[in-house]
Amino acid sequence: MSEKENRIEEQEFTEDVQVADENGATTENTQENNEEQPNELDAAKAKIAELSDKYLRQVAEFDNYRKRTMKEKAELIKNGGERVMESILPVLDDFERALANMGKDESAKEILTGIELIHNKFIGILKQNGLQKIETENADFNTDYHEAIAMVPAPVAELKGKVIDCVQTGYMLNDKVLRHAKVAVGE
Question: pTM, whole model, 2 decimals?
């Protein structure tokens, strides 16, 4: 647009404003606008507060989700080998029975020594991976770690409520019971 056209438009606009002032319509509209402005401002503030609250809740929810998934992932990594360890326990039991029976035979001393070395190495690897034997010798009966399969009369009064004999060894994996120890308890 040229300068001339701009001036003509400005004059027309000024004339429109002056006509509106003369009729009084513009002044009434200004008062209505002043009354509507605080209501709109309050509504906008309320909307901002609502959205801010919603945003903070979403951030907190996401943070809780992130923490929960990290904890679950760490737990999964820590106890990921639980199934494998459970499947190895019967082999470990067989190993221990074989060692106990071979100790009775004098002709198998050299074989017994070799198997003991293999057994100790196997136990060492399992311990490195978090497997621990549940101790039962002279221990108080604890349902968190022991499973009572028999109640036997205690030979002495001090053995009441204590483990007298271990029928099957129990194991823990990273402080979680993998298999309860099956024991006989004195009564």
Answer: 0.57
